[in-house]
């Protein structure tokens, strides 16, 4: 059941909703109001979980153990949290501390939607999206665009792009397609952003029908007048 959360005091298209319960799921929608009454509500946004946006780091201590190494040897530690680590070496004569910066690389997160489709024609279309929120700590090399094959129901690679947009070509006229986009860096490929809408590969305007009833209406030795019925 929908409950009123807030009524803004200005026409600015933004608001802060307080009083959420941590861990609960919420959806929101917006209604415009003027002197004539209320509008229809907007489409509901994606489900939101009330939780802290930023969390303090926590070290996974399950695999921590004492290690004995020889002087000059290399020590390798597993770390799953980006940030600054303090390493302390201690012996009977004292101790020394050094601070190291750890950068962890991973696959990027999925590109951000919506996946916009425009300039549809019988052999292709134009796609546009947004870069991932997290590139995985290493630059995005390219975006992989796949199309859903209407005959097999399988995703098929159709093109790549280094920018968050692409011109798709090679579609079969009259076939229906959906698209998805993944970001790729040195660590691998992200989860895909799957488009919500499908398209039919066709020109925005149908080709005209054929003219009919072509016949001469007048002529002479050096000219002829023609008339016909235009296409429907």
From TrEMBL:
This is Twitchin. The gene is unc-22. Residues 204-225 have a biased composition (Basic and acidic residues). GO terms for cellular component: M band. SUPFAM superfamilies: Fibronectin type III (SSF49265). Residues 1-53, 111-204 form the Fibronectin type-III domain. Keywords: Repeat. Residues 188-232 are annotated as: Disordered. Gene3D superfamilies: Immunoglobulins. It holds the Pfam family fn3. InterPro entries: FN3_dom, FN3_sf, Ig-like_fold, Striated_Muscle_Regulatory. One of its GO terms (biological process) is sarcomere organization. CDD domains: FN3.
